[in-house]
Amino acid sequence: MLLDNTYTELIVKFSGDIIGIINSLGGFAEILECNYAIVTIPVNQVNNLYNYKEVEYFEPSKNVTPNGTLKTEMGTAEILPIKFTEKNLNGKGVIVGIIDSGIDYIHKDFINNDGTSRIIYIWDQSIDGNNPKGFIHGSEYTSNDINKAIKESEPYSILPSQDLIGHGTAVTGIAAGNSGIASQSLIISVKLGSNKVAKTTDILRGIKYIIDKSIELNMPASINISYGMNDGSHTGNSLFEQSIASMCNKWKISISVAMGNEGSAGHHFSAVIKADQTIEADFAYQSFSKNLYIDIWKSFNDNIEFELVSPNRASSGTLYAKDEMKLIRFGSMYIIMNYKPISHYNRMQEIVFTFSNESDGFIPGIWKLIIKCTYAVDQKIDIWLPTIAEVGTSTAFLNPDNLLTLTLPSTVERVISVGGYNSAIGSLAYFSGMGNENISKPDLVAPAVNIYSSKVGGDYDSFSGTSMASPFVCGSAALMMEWGIVKGNMPFLYGESLKAYLIKGADRSNKRKCPDFGWGYGVLDLKNTFILLE
Q1: CB-based contact 482:91 (threshold 8 Å)
Q2: By CB neighbour count within 10 A (0-12 exposed, 13-18 middle, 19+ buried), where does 512 fall?
Q3: Cα separation of 445 and 428, whole Å?
Q4: How many other CB atoms are there within 10 angstroms of residue 37's CB atom?
Q5: Phi/psi at 263 (nearest 5 deg)?
Q6: Cα–Cα distances in angstroms (integers) from residue 470 to residues 73, 115, 502, 533, in the given order
Q7: Contact at 8 Å (CB) between 439 and 235?
Q8: What angle do CA 498, 502, 504 make, to 5 degrees?
Q9: DSSP labels, 118-132
Q10: Helix 239-247 and helix 200-217: axis angle, to 10°?
């Protein structure tokens, strides 16, 4: 069911009969877990949701992008030192679920010796057709469909799902390829709705789908998400983050999430601002960055005014909270300022500047964002630009803060948030996203530089990015679940229990204070983790 632009998608927290309400408004509701749902609804019906007491809150779907792949030179394989073969563990009896850009299902790394596929389901959200039950988008392909296709000379004429950017194939190869970590796990691949820019709602659908299949098959599941975004307060409080946290409570699962590659991107600005003080958050803006937004978070207690000054010195004038939403014109270019109302789940207030992408009148150069505080209590402001995948590295703050550069949803407390390090030289990867004194992330780090993995087309290549670090942990979690749940050594080894053992077993030989803003609690050390488990 592909919908045109007269419809919009929302994440909704609800109680009661949300399906009946949305049906009456001409829409469709997909229940995620407990009191969370994805709602697809006509744009002209959104305001009517305020009339229903069953609707507790809602937020729009937002863009998420891959946390890799960064260009690297060919390197040595980083998988073999992590594999834990002493106990003959290979992930058998565990599902590895990858939510990403798809998978090259005819690659030999995902095919058994007998010629059958190790992939049991592909759900391609971008191909409308055979929707999985309860979902509004996509086509589902079973192991029978996959096995039939891989025997054909033209498999894509039988099963058209493809990984067009290679990101998901590389991630899956690390976590669960034949040369990867959980080399005998069954694989579920969820291809997100678009190759390079997906939606938060796509991620949520993918998590629910994998959990549903795992329950149906009565198998534990280790899930990997190597996508992220900067559009949020980075505190774990959005409905996107809360709904993931809620789904973490269902079934025997573990979710690993990449921290993102924003560590040195210059996309975060922070400052302490006092009453009657004026500061500037200047940033370079390149005209090819046509999806630019400026996401500002400040305390509701503080009164702050803004002014935008373009590279040609045109000014927006002073922008006040009372303006709420204002259109700002700079010649043929325009920007929308949205001073959002306070929400029930976050006492921080959001102000968003959205640069138009409908005009060719973009003004590149150094922009000034002038911030004036007229009354201050908490005295703190954080600002984010979009991720590297959206705007590159040429659009950046001139005086950035490298802390709090993790991307959503690695901000979710219940997931395992994975940063990246360069194992060849023992240093933190320069691009790895970081937490700060208030956000205790990452949980740990894994190899992220020159990782040898499956490449679309049947070959192998070297990849870098925290996208490649997270599947090391995902695959490791699958081995732990095999030992604990499948083999009966520790039936409740999943979720927070599994994460706790990974953290306690992490290598802290660098003697940094834990948790460290970049290293978390240390380096993934599966051998030491199993020593602790015994």
Answers
A1: yes
A2: middle
A3: 8
A4: 23
A5: -55, -35
A6: 20, 29, 13, 22
A7: yes
A8: 115
A9: SEEEEEETTS-SSPP
A10: 10
Nearest to 380, CA basis, from 304, 309, 439: 304
Burial class (CB in 10 A: 0-12, 13-18, 19+), 141: buried
Exposed / middle / buried, residue 236 (Cβ in 10 Å: 0-12, 13-18, 19+): buried
Other beta carbons within 10 angstroms of residue 50's beta carbon come to 9
Dihedral through CA 208, CA 213, CA 214, CA 217, nearest 10?
Answer: 160
pLDDT at 103 over 80: yes
Let me know: does 181 contact 94? Beta carbons within 8 Å.
no
Helix (H, G, I), strand (E, B) or coil at 456: coil
Neighbours of 316 (CB within 10 A): 19
Rounded Cα distance between 59 and 43, Å, is 13
Q: How far apart are the first and last CA of the chain?
A: 50
Q: Find out whether 489 and 248 touch, Cβ atoms under 8 Å.
A: no
Closest CA to 408 of 293, 246, 165, 240: 240
Q: Point out which residues pair with 305 in neighbouring strands.
A: 372
pLDDT above 60 (res 226)? yes
Confirm if 409 and 203 have CB atoms less than 8 A apart.
Answer: yes
Read off the pLDDT of residues 17-51 as tens digits, 9 standing for 90 and up.
999 999 999 999 999 988 999 999 999 999 999 99
**CB 442, CB 406: distance < 8 Å:** yes
Could you read off the pLDDT of 473-508 as tens digits, one per residue? 999 999 999 999 999 999 999 999 999 999 999 999
For residue 80, what pLDDT is reported?
Answer: 42
Residue 28, Cα to own-chain centre: how many angstroms?
24
Phi/psi at 70 (5° precision): -85, 145
Confidence of residue 513 (pLDDT cuts 50, 70, 90): confident
For residue 307 the two structure tokens come to 């002014």
Determine the average pLDDT of the residues in 506-532: 92
| Sequence-distant (≥ 6) Cβ neighbours of residue 444 within 8 angstroms | 416, 418, 419, 473, 502, 503, 506, 519, 520, 521, 522, 523, 524
Tokens of 192: 């997100």
Tokens of 5: 């632009």
Q: Residues with Cβ < 8 Å from 448, sequence gap 6 or more?
A: 419, 420, 421, 422, 429, 431, 432, 464, 465, 466, 468, 469
Q: Map tokens 């490791």 to a residue.
A: 476
Rounded distance, CA 91 to CA 245, Å?
25
Tens-place pLDDT, residues 312-348? 999 999 998 888 899 998 888 889 999 988 887 788 9
Residue with tokens 């993995």: 453
Residue 53, token pair as written in the block = 């007491």
Distance of alpha carbon 516 from alpha carbon 180, whole angstroms:
28
Place of tokens 């003004």: 363
